[in-house]
Structures are given as C-alpha cells and as structure tokens.
Design goal:
Blueprint lengths: L3 E3 L1 E2 L5 H9 L2 E8 L2 E9 H10 L4 E5 L5 E11 L6 E8 L6 E10 L3 H4 L3 E4 L3 E6 L7 E5 L8 E3 L10 E2 L6 E6 L1 H8 L1
Parallel strand pairs: 1-5, 3-7, 8-11
Antiparallel strand pairs: 2-4, 3-4, 5-6, 6-7, 8-10, 9-14, 10-13, 12-14
Length: about 190
C-alpha cells in the first residue's frame, strides 16, 4: 500500500471539457464507497498507467484535492475500444478494518513435462476471487507447473494462500491442464 496517487478536482463536467482534459493527459475519475458520497476527480494518465502496469489491483493511497489521504482500489476502467486509451476510472474507497472481496492473478511458471511428450497446455482461468483483509491482499500468486504430465490438471483447491485469505472461487474449478493432441481435436469438433 505504498503507492500514492493524486486525485485532483475535476476541471469540467461537460463531454467536451472532459475530452479536452483527456487530450492534456488528465483522466476523469470518480471515488465512491459504502456510506460515502460519490466525488468527481481527475487523475494523471501517466501516473495511473504506471500504477496499472505494476499492479492493477493494488490498494493505493489517494491524496484528494483537500489534502486527505484515502485508501482506494481501482474498481473499473473504461477504455477506447480500438486504441485502448483510458477514458474513465472508478476508484472504490477501501475500509482497512473490514475484509474485502477481490481477484488475485495467477502466474504459471515452469515448463510442464507433459509438453515435451506431446501434450497441449490449456489454461482455463488466470485469476481467482478471494476474501481477506486489505493489508493481506496478495499482488499475484505464482504456480509452478513444471511437474504436470499429460492428463494432469491443477484445481483451485491446489492453491496455497497464507492464513487469513479465503478463496471464493469454486475449489473444483480447473485452472490449467495438459491434454493430449487427440483430446484437443475432439473438443474443437
């Protein structure tokens, strides 16, 4: 939670004013939360892009226009369909004394032995939903798949998180599997 982001007062509310702000590198944003008023802000495009590259689900310390520090989470990002440029960001106020639901990205590492014997790697999911205290929220989880042979699979129940993190995704969900080429052809048919 050491990442800081500046939320500046929004300079305009009309569509043309917001488009002008985007051209100048200021992205319209809102901040909301349970029991909190929804507030409109702008955030530096460069600053938020850097944060999103490092950890899109990080809990940030947002400095508001009135100099208050507020813990926030990026809740939603709107992008231009073709170019992918940022259009709008929703920040959610995080209550640091209550557990929260969020998603954790799974990174698969290693070369599965089943691939060397002709298997095909099939990834079913790249993230799982968890519930934990905000300070316990992991950035991501690395899973070693080097021991997987043809026919092997990893389930959500195979993940090992530290104490205090409850996995909400169905434990029987397949995350990754090594199939034979024959199985892969039958499924596409």
């Amino acid at each position: 939670m050491s990442t800081f982001i500046q939320l500046n007062k929004r300079t305009g509310e009309t569509k043309s004013q917001m488009n002008q702000a985007r051209k100048q590198g200021r992205i319209p944003a809102v901040l909301y939360g349970i029991g909190k008023d929804t507030l409109s802000f702008e955030v530096s495009e460069k600053e938020i892009t850097d944060v999103l590259k490092k950890n899109p689900r990080a809990i940030l310390q947002a400095k508001t226009a009135d100099e208050n520090m507020v813990p926030v989470l990026v809740q939603n990002i709107q992008r231009e369909i073709i170019s992918g440029k940022l259009l709008h960001i929703d920040f959610h106020h995080v209550n640091m004394s209550e557990s929260m639901d969020s998603k954790v990205t799974i990174h698969f590492s290693g070369d599965a032995i089943g691939l060397k014997s002709g298997g095909v790697l099939q990834v079913e999911i790249y993230e799982v939903e968890v519930r934990c205290m905000p300070n316990d929220l992991p950035t991501s989880l690395e899973v070693d798949i080097s021991g997987l042979a043809v026919g092997d699979q990893l389930l959500v129940s195979d993940l090992i998180f530290k104490d205090g993190i409850e996995v909400l995704t169905d434990p029987s969900t397949v995350m990754i599997q090594i199939k034979t080429v024959h199985e892969e052809i039958e499924e596409t048919a």
